[in-house]
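SAMPLE LOG
Freezer: B-3
Tube label: C17
Construct: single chain, 269 aa
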Amino acid sequence: MHFATLASGSSGNAILVGEGERGFLVDCGISAKRLVGNLAILNVPPEQIEGIIVTHEHIDHIKGIGVLARKLKIPILATAGLWEEIRQAAGPLKDEQKIIIPAEVSLAGLDIKLFPTSHDSRESYGLKITRQTAGHKRLSLGIATDSGTVTQAMHEHLRGCDALVVEANHDEEKLWQGRYPWPLKRRIAGIYGHLENGQIAEGLLSWIGENTQRVVLAHLSEENNTPEAALTAVLRALRGSRIAKENPELRLRVAPRHTPHELIYLREE
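STRUCTURE (predicted):
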């Protein structure tokens, strides 16, 4: 199994997840042209993309879904509630491109389970993506962005994943001392807003296991966070913890805002 963020932040989000020469997208909040260009940077042919799973209806997650679905002749997969919200933004599609999904679905040879996050949208989901290996090990990738608090469902589905893509949206001090208007600050810091560096650091202490290979910090605010601040908060929490002793090979990085990072391949051993 492999993955990469293709864009990350309030200006647009998209994640590639794949297995072999098959793959799918989690959201497409950037233009179809830019999305295809970012796939090309990774040498991933767009023909390998078999569908787009939508996590919630905010524009930074759905901006390009309709154009890309029509261009690549692929389906958009979303819950019934989300389809009511995204239908207009998606534009004209063939019936077979409009797929209503339950909490569990398979795509591109991978099993996907949706779980709720806490965000100010009609419905908002994280994903746990798994694949059974030849050695009877179950590889897993957990994805959770756009949540104002660490939910019980996040604890349940992210704990022990082989890799994690999780939100480190803002630094608390930068947010409250920044130039955003007060109502927006309250929205971001609220339980239906976005996770702060310290919140995700605390969550990671519970989720990272001996098998966890990679952690990608995503959806950073351009105004209220920096990659250095996010990394420092998480590393400070991990330093001296059981994780540092049990998993010295764990690798941590921040998702770039406009470009993809390298394809990350999960080891099966």
